[in-house]
Design brief:
Strand order of the largest sheet: 6-3-2-1-11
Helix content: 10-25%
Shape: globular
Structural class: alpha+beta
Radius of gyration: 21 Å
Largest sheet: 5 strands, antiparallel
Distance between the termini: 43 Å
Number of helices: 4
Strand content: 25-35%
Amino acid sequence: MRKPLPLALAAALFTLSAHAGDPSLGATTYTVYEAFLSPAQQPGEESETPKLLQKSLGATAPSTPREQRKSRGHGQLRFTKDLTRAYVDVQMTGVNPEDILMFHIHCGPPGVLGPIIVDLGEAGALSKTVVDGRFTLELKNENITFIKDMKGMKSGLPESCPAELGFLPTQTKTLAGLESLARKGVLYFNLHTKAHTYYGEMRGQLYAAQP
């Protein structure tokens, strides 16, 4: 016998409410993205650094073509389900910590140079925070990068990527926005060294981790 519509609807609503999650799990369960870093993912060689940037971002040590570099890495970017915290864990080989100048999460599709969205060097000198080839860091909303003042740019111009294109483009300001960009596959790790400063030593595009 078919249930009356109001009774069936009430039963469906009761069933849905019974599946509500425990709020505390939001801080202890994760959405995970991972990247395998390699020189092959860089879109250019150090010798191709634009002339205008060679003094400020050019190599200060002898460079090596991408296919000859031994640097490799694996990194994870883990977001708590409530999007209040994120954690970076990177393991790298073939890199001397003393040679590391910068380490960032950038926003951009594969093969494209994009702006910095998280400066992983804010935690301290990378020669000291990279220990035994391992780097770890906890991120919060305030770690999303914004330029306060840069020569040739308007003061306060945000560095981080647009969260979404629309009538009023907005900038990513939160971990929730960062996770949304990770889901779209437009975040990547980039490690910069003395020998490979402009394009970087190695790069790793972030994608959803495979179970």
